[in-house]
């Protein structure tokens, strides 16, 4: 069984994001970029399925500029077998990525497409759902446990009221939630080995896909600054403030 894993290069989660002066977006100049954390979980899950003898090959794909090769090399160091870069400098919105994933799935014929539930830069939480819809495959989003046996995937999903268990026929799309697993660190020998693993660069322009943005960003602004807290003398003063100033009780 072949597994395809989608990984996105995003601003590292430790970076304090700055908005550009013209409010057109986030400043990416000299900013540390890393693999989207939910995608690390997706790779880890695929590699565990391979180690368990359930998967035979783990292929990773990233869509974006040349620098995404770094992200793909990290995925290869975690244990993926080969990588595909769908290369473009154009802005890619979730629908465009979903179309690219569909094209790659049609070519590669994986039994599972595992991806993050959301990218921490745009927080869209759309790409997996759109890819499943375009492919006509069943989907299990927010997976916290995945079992694959007899041509079927069983997924425990985190929903508002608790946990839901669903069965999907393969091929299917699974998106990862935080508690699915704890991703391993890539070891130095594996980072060295990853440099030799195949990485195929395919220009998006040659795929015949319309990746034009469907949404226009009007402006991006910083959240309002938080004002400092104060100390109140006693409970009566606190209650008075909550009632008269915050007007929450
Ligand atoms: P989003 O819908 O943007 O929140 O992203 C959800 C998931 O889709 C991510 O965790 C990735 O697995 C995948 N994804 C989004 N954008 C890309 C991209 N440019 N390249 C590869 N995978 C992506």
Can you give a write-up of this model?
There is one protein chain. This protein has 249 residues and is an alpha/beta fold. It has one domain: Rossmann fold (3-Layer(aba) Sandwich), CATH 3.40.50. It contains 6 helices and 11 strands. It has helices at 37-51, 68-78, 94-108, 127-135, 188-194, 235-244, and strands spanning 2-6, 9-11, 33-35, 57-64, 82-87, 112-116, 139-149, 152-159, 162-169, 172-176, 199-203. The strands form 2 sheets. A 9-stranded mixed beta sheet has the order 9-8-7-10-6-1-4-5-11, with helices on both faces. A two-stranded antiparallel sheet has the order 2-3. Strand 7 (139-149) and strand 8 (152-159) form a beta hairpin. Adenosine monophosphate (AMP) binds at residues 6-8, 36, 38-39, 62-64, 92, 94, 97, 115-116, 118-119, 122, 124-128.
Topology of helices and strands:
Blueprint: E1 2-6, E2 9-11, E3 33-35, H1 37-51, E4 57-64, H2 68-78, E5 82-87, H3 94-108, E6 112-116, H4 127-135, E7 139-149, E8 152-159, E9 162-169, E10 172-176, H5 188-194, E11 199-203, H6 235-244
Helix pairs in contact: 2-5, 3-4
The chain binds adenosine monophosphate.
Adenosine monophosphate (AMP) binds at residues 6-8, 36, 38-39, 62-64, 92, 94, 97, 115-116, 118-119, 122, 124-128.
Write a short abstract of this structure.
By secondary structure, the protein is of the alpha/beta class. The chain is built from six helices and eleven strands. 36% of the residues are buried.
CATH level-3 fold name: Rossmann fold
Structural class: alpha/beta
Q: What is the averaged pLDDT score?
A: 96
Total beta-strand segments? 11
Instruction: Please trace the helix and strand order, writing H or E for each element.
Output: EEEHEHEHEHEEEEHEH
Strand order of the largest sheet: 9-8-7-10-6-1-4-5-11
Number of structurally distinct domains: 1
**CATH homologous superfamily descriptor:** HUPs
Number of helices: 6
Choose one word for the global shape. Answer: globular
Radius of gyration: 21 Å
Attached small molecules: adenosine monophosphate
Could you tell me the strand content as a percent range?
25-35%
Distance between the ends? 58 Å
Helix proportion of residues, in percent? 25-40%
CATH hierarchy: architecture:
3-Layer(aba) Sandwich
Largest sheet: 9 strands, mixed
